[in-house]
Amino acid sequence: MSNPALADEVTDTLTSAMDAYEEGDIDYAIEELDYAKQLLQAMKTAELTAFLPEAPAGWTREVSEEMNTGLAMLGGGMGAEAEYSDGADSFTITIMANNPMVTAMGAMVSNAAMLGMKLERVGRQKFVNDDGELTGLVDNRILIQASGADVDLMVGVLENIDYEALEDFAR
Questions:
Q1: What's the pTM value of the predicted model, to 2 decimals?
Q2: For 80, phi and psi rounded to 5 degrees?
Q3: How many CB atoms lie within 10 A of CB 86?
Q4: CB of 15 within 8 A of CB of 23?
Q5: Residues contacting residue 83 through CB under 8 Å, at least 6 positions apart
Q6: Alpha-carbon torsion 11, 12, 16, 22, what sign?
Q7: Contact between 93 and 82 (Cβ < 8 Å)
Q8: Which of 10, 50, 91, 106 could pair with 148 as two cysteines, CB 3.0-4.6 Å apart?
Q9: DSSP 3-state percent helix, strand, coil across the chain (nearest 5)
Protein backbone atom coordinates (compact mmCIF):
# COMPACT_ATOMS: atom_id res chain seq x y z
CA MET A 1 0.00 0.00 0.00
CA SER A 2 2.89 2.34 -0.66
CA ASN A 3 2.45 5.63 -2.43
CA PRO A 4 4.69 5.71 -5.55
CA ALA A 5 4.80 9.53 -5.60
CA LEU A 6 5.89 9.56 -1.98
CA ALA A 7 8.41 6.80 -2.69
CA ASP A 8 9.92 9.00 -5.42
CA GLU A 9 10.15 11.85 -2.91
CA VAL A 10 11.93 9.50 -0.51
CA THR A 11 14.40 8.50 -3.20
CA ASP A 12 14.97 12.13 -4.18
CA THR A 13 15.50 13.11 -0.54
CA LEU A 14 17.96 10.28 0.06
CA THR A 15 19.84 11.24 -3.10
CA SER A 16 19.95 14.82 -1.89
CA ALA A 17 21.34 13.63 1.46
CA MET A 18 24.05 11.64 -0.33
CA ASP A 19 24.93 14.63 -2.50
CA ALA A 20 25.17 16.90 0.54
CA TYR A 21 27.35 14.34 2.31
CA GLU A 22 29.68 14.05 -0.67
CA GLU A 23 29.91 17.86 -0.78
CA GLY A 24 30.80 17.91 2.93
CA ASP A 25 27.55 19.57 4.03
CA ILE A 26 26.85 17.25 6.95
CA ASP A 27 24.15 19.45 8.52
CA TYR A 28 22.08 19.45 5.34
CA ALA A 29 22.64 15.71 4.88
CA ILE A 30 21.22 15.15 8.38
CA GLU A 31 18.21 17.38 7.61
CA GLU A 32 17.52 15.41 4.44
CA LEU A 33 17.83 12.09 6.26
CA ASP A 34 15.42 13.30 8.95
CA TYR A 35 12.98 14.37 6.25
CA ALA A 36 13.29 11.00 4.48
CA LYS A 37 12.55 9.29 7.80
CA GLN A 38 9.41 11.42 8.21
CA LEU A 39 8.25 10.46 4.73
CA LEU A 40 8.82 6.77 5.41
CA GLN A 41 6.97 6.99 8.74
CA ALA A 42 4.06 8.65 6.94
CA MET A 43 3.93 5.69 4.57
CA LYS A 44 3.85 3.21 7.48
CA THR A 45 1.18 5.27 9.24
CA ALA A 46 -0.98 5.13 6.12
CA GLU A 47 -0.61 1.34 6.16
CA LEU A 48 -1.64 1.23 9.85
CA THR A 49 -4.67 3.44 9.18
CA ALA A 50 -5.92 0.81 6.71
CA PHE A 51 -6.52 -1.52 9.68
CA LEU A 52 -9.16 0.78 11.17
CA PRO A 53 -12.50 -0.91 10.49
CA GLU A 54 -15.20 0.66 8.40
CA ALA A 55 -18.14 2.20 10.24
CA PRO A 56 -21.14 0.02 11.03
CA ALA A 57 -24.35 0.60 9.08
CA GLY A 58 -25.84 3.99 9.91
CA TRP A 59 -22.56 5.27 11.34
CA THR A 60 -19.75 7.40 9.89
CA ARG A 61 -16.00 7.09 10.38
CA GLU A 62 -13.66 10.10 10.67
CA VAL A 63 -9.95 9.23 10.64
CA SER A 64 -7.80 11.54 12.77
CA GLU A 65 -4.82 13.21 11.13
CA GLU A 66 -3.36 14.29 14.50
CA MET A 67 -2.63 10.89 16.06
CA ASN A 68 1.11 10.77 15.35
CA THR A 69 1.70 14.30 16.63
CA GLY A 70 0.55 13.15 20.05
CA LEU A 71 2.64 9.98 19.88
CA ALA A 72 5.79 12.02 19.35
CA MET A 73 5.28 13.39 22.86
CA LEU A 74 4.74 9.86 24.22
CA GLY A 75 8.02 8.41 23.00
CA GLY A 76 7.35 7.91 19.30
CA GLY A 77 5.97 5.07 17.30
CA MET A 78 3.02 5.27 14.98
CA GLY A 79 -0.70 5.28 15.41
CA ALA A 80 -4.05 5.49 13.74
CA GLU A 81 -7.32 6.69 15.22
CA ALA A 82 -10.88 7.03 14.03
CA GLU A 83 -14.04 8.38 15.57
CA TYR A 84 -17.27 6.59 14.72
CA SER A 85 -20.58 8.43 15.02
CA ASP A 86 -24.26 7.90 14.33
CA GLY A 87 -25.11 11.55 14.94
CA ALA A 88 -26.11 11.02 18.58
CA ASP A 89 -23.47 8.63 19.93
CA SER A 90 -19.82 8.18 19.13
CA PHE A 91 -16.82 6.03 20.00
CA THR A 92 -13.13 5.97 19.16
CA ILE A 93 -10.79 3.20 18.05
CA THR A 94 -7.05 3.77 18.40
CA ILE A 95 -4.23 1.54 17.13
CA MET A 96 -0.66 2.17 18.33
CA ALA A 97 2.51 0.37 17.28
CA ASN A 98 6.16 0.66 18.25
CA ASN A 99 5.42 2.97 21.17
CA PRO A 100 6.81 2.60 24.73
CA MET A 101 3.26 2.88 26.09
CA VAL A 102 2.39 -0.33 24.26
CA THR A 103 5.10 -2.17 26.18
CA ALA A 104 3.87 -0.76 29.48
CA MET A 105 0.25 -1.72 28.76
CA GLY A 106 1.30 -5.14 27.49
CA ALA A 107 1.92 -6.58 30.95
CA MET A 108 -1.51 -5.45 32.14
CA VAL A 109 -3.34 -6.85 29.12
CA SER A 110 -1.41 -10.13 29.19
CA ASN A 111 -2.15 -10.66 32.88
CA ALA A 112 -5.64 -9.17 33.00
CA ALA A 113 -7.38 -12.32 34.20
CA MET A 114 -4.87 -12.79 37.02
CA LEU A 115 -5.43 -9.16 38.03
CA GLY A 116 -9.18 -9.80 38.26
CA MET A 117 -10.03 -7.66 35.23
CA LYS A 118 -12.94 -8.46 32.95
CA LEU A 119 -12.04 -9.83 29.52
CA GLU A 120 -13.92 -9.62 26.22
CA ARG A 121 -13.20 -11.93 23.31
CA VAL A 122 -12.98 -10.50 19.82
CA GLY A 123 -12.41 -13.55 17.67
CA ARG A 124 -9.19 -15.01 19.06
CA GLN A 125 -8.09 -11.70 20.60
CA LYS A 126 -8.54 -10.85 24.26
CA PHE A 127 -9.50 -7.32 25.25
CA VAL A 128 -9.54 -5.97 28.79
CA ASN A 129 -12.88 -4.34 29.59
CA ASP A 130 -12.15 -1.51 32.03
CA ASP A 131 -15.53 0.13 32.67
CA GLY A 132 -16.46 -0.05 28.99
CA GLU A 133 -13.04 0.87 27.58
CA LEU A 134 -11.61 -2.05 25.64
CA THR A 135 -7.85 -2.55 25.40
CA GLY A 136 -6.22 -5.35 23.42
CA LEU A 137 -2.68 -6.28 22.53
CA VAL A 138 -1.73 -7.84 19.20
CA ASP A 139 1.57 -9.70 18.99
CA ASN A 140 2.72 -8.02 22.24
CA ARG A 141 3.53 -4.82 20.32
CA ILE A 142 0.36 -3.33 18.84
CA LEU A 143 -2.19 -1.81 21.19
CA ILE A 144 -5.84 -1.39 20.21
CA GLN A 145 -8.25 0.65 22.31
CA ALA A 146 -11.95 1.30 21.83
CA SER A 147 -14.00 3.57 24.05
CA GLY A 148 -17.14 5.64 24.21
CA ALA A 149 -19.99 3.31 23.25
CA ASP A 150 -21.77 0.12 24.22
CA VAL A 151 -19.25 -2.71 24.53
CA ASP A 152 -21.24 -5.04 22.25
CA LEU A 153 -21.27 -2.40 19.49
CA MET A 154 -17.53 -1.79 19.78
CA VAL A 155 -16.78 -5.53 19.85
CA GLY A 156 -18.81 -5.90 16.66
CA VAL A 157 -16.69 -3.25 14.95
CA LEU A 158 -13.42 -4.63 16.35
CA GLU A 159 -14.31 -8.01 14.85
CA ASN A 160 -13.70 -6.46 11.41
CA ILE A 161 -9.97 -5.92 12.00
CA ASP A 162 -7.68 -8.35 10.18
CA TYR A 163 -5.65 -9.36 13.24
CA GLU A 164 -3.47 -11.86 11.35
CA ALA A 165 -2.37 -9.14 8.91
CA LEU A 166 -1.92 -6.71 11.80
CA GLU A 167 0.48 -9.16 13.46
CA ASP A 168 2.71 -8.90 10.37
CA PHE A 169 2.61 -5.10 10.40
CA ALA A 170 5.94 -3.30 10.86
CA ARG A 171 8.10 -6.39 11.22
A1: 0.75
A2: -140, 145
A3: 15
A4: no
A5: 61, 62, 64, 90, 91, 92
A6: positive
A7: yes
A8: 91
A9: 45, 25, 30
